[in-house]
Design a protein that fits this description.
This protein is of the alpha/beta class. It has one domain: P-loop containing nucleotide triphosphate hydrolases (Rossmann fold, 3-Layer(aba) Sandwich), CATH 3.40.50. It contains 13 helices and eight strands. An eight-stranded mixed beta sheet has the order 3-4-2-5-1-6-7-8, with helices on both faces. It starts with a strand and ends with a helix. It binds adenosine-5'-diphosphate and magnesium ion (MG).
């Protein structure tokens, strides 16, 4: 049985993809586990961050979800990181909710198409889109451990509480009893008084669930722009140490 970890936040630009890719590469490279990273966003940033060219064509997660003739092994791509494979996503994922609308099982399609991966991989990681809709519901029903990256800005607390509530509602509605929020990762964090206050508040609201903040770090941004994980780009940097601490925390799932 593979662990299934998803990175979710309905806001864009809060570090979902950065965390999903680097945590996936942590399990693959540092823990020598077989990892499948599944991108669900229309922007295809998980592929970009791994230096995989999706625009060059090939099947994506959309084909897997909407065409019963397409099998999992046809959409999985190797990456430059050993033990790490990718199911890429691209623009056509925007059409998924319309395509699946008439299917009574539409919320469980992702879980269904990934069933064969359960035996083949140790960890499956999901990079969710920045919205709450059918795609994210599919992610919640395919995953078990939810990580919420939260930018430590003024409205963060509201947004975070809402997302935790959504995860709980979906878990209840679909009887997915193993679904739970395991970590909240403060991201894009600045050590200002307000930033620190927000982290403290998150810790009060969500005891034991808040990891060390992912501070603003140029090396982390650079790695992504080079199409590399932090472990390939700058393994001895402060950014790498930071991401390793966060990844270990997610690994322990406290
Ligand atoms: N700790 C960080 N320090 C600096 N830049 C970051 C950091 N984390 C993410 N970024 C940058 O912020 C942008 C948005 O991050 P991303 O992970 O793509 O967010 P999301 O997937 O939630 O939209 C990217 O350009 C990324 O490189
Ligand atoms: Mg993203």
């Amino acid at each position: 049985m593979a662990r299934r970890i998803a990175f979710i936040n309905e806001k864009g630009g809060v570090g979902k993809t950065t965390l999903a890719v680097n945590v996936a590469a942590f399990f693959a490279g540092k823990r020598r586990q077989k990892v499948l990273l599944v991108d669900l966003d229309t922007q295809g940033h998980a592929a970009k961050t791994l230096g995989v060219d999706v625009r060059a064509g090939g099947l994506t997660v959309f084909d897997l979800l909407t065409n019963p003739a397409v099998g999992l092994n046809q959409v999985i791509r190797p990456t430059a990181v050993e033990n790490l494979w990718l199911v890429p996503s691209w623009k056509e994922m925007a059409e998924f909710p319309t395509r699946a609308a008439a299917d009574p099982e539409r919320a469980k399609l992702l879980s269904k198409v990934l069933a064969p991966a359960d035996e083949l991989y140790d960890v499956i990681i999901f990079d969710a889109p920045p919205s709450f809709g059918l795609v994210t519901t599919n992610v919640l029903l395919a995953a078990e451990e939810i990580v919420i990256p939260v930018a430590t800005t003024y409205l963060a607390l509201d947004g975070c509480a809402e997302m935790v509530a959504t995860v709980e509602r979906v878990a209840k509605e679909y009887g997915h009893t193993r679904l739970r929020v395991t970590q909240i990762v403060p991201t894009l964090h600045r050590k200002t008084q307000m930033g620190e206050e927000i982290v403290e508040k998150l810790k009060q609201y969500f005891p034991r669930k808040v990891s060390e903040p992912m501070g603003l770090n140029v090396t982390i941004d650079e790695a992504q722009s080079h199409g590399k994980t932090i472990w390939e780009h700058a393994p001895w940097s402060r950014g790498a140490t930071l991401l390793q601490q966060i990844a270990e925390r997610i690994e322990r799932a406290l």
